[in-house]
Amino acid sequence: MRDTNKVFHLAIPCKDLDETVDFYEKLGCTLARRYDDRVTFNFFGDQVVCHLNPESVDERPKMYPRHYGITFTDKEEFDQALTFAQEQKLPFFQELMIRFKGKKEEHVTFFLIDPANNLLEFKYYHDIEMVY
């Protein structure tokens, strides 16, 4: 796996910094930095930077191919994330579902949608070998 000295970085558009901070903090992410044109978060150990760019917001987002998120290797942590999202009343784009049912790559997943229509997927594979 990756060494602890490496952090994945993702930059995405946002339309309003205040509502972006509110969403990601409710998700449990820590605000690392805020500037006039962007906010940076610790997103489950990785870095997500939301750049203020309202004209780049996708008004009709689709799950595939553009989304990002977390793949859990522990089912209990996945279940906790789902419960937390429900308790925080975060907006779901897709409720809990099973993908590839009955196949080796079967997994459970749900999608959240942030205020700029960026889609976040949270998933758990029953077979750890299918994570990659």
TrEMBL record:
<dbReference type="InterPro" id="IPR004360">
    <property type="entry name" value="Glyas_Fos-R_dOase_dom"/>
</dbReference>
<dbReference type="InterPro" id="IPR037523">
    <property type="entry name" value="VOC_core"/>
</dbReference>
<dbReference type="InterPro" id="IPR029068">
    <property type="entry name" value="Glyas_Bleomycin-R_OHBP_Dase"/>
</dbReference>
<feature type="domain" description="VOC">
    <location>
        <begin position="6"/>
        <end position="125"/>
    </location>
</feature>
<protein>
    <submittedName>
        <fullName>Glyoxalase</fullName>
    </submittedName>
</protein>
<dbReference type="Pfam" id="PF00903">
    <property type="entry name" value="Glyoxalase"/>
</dbReference>
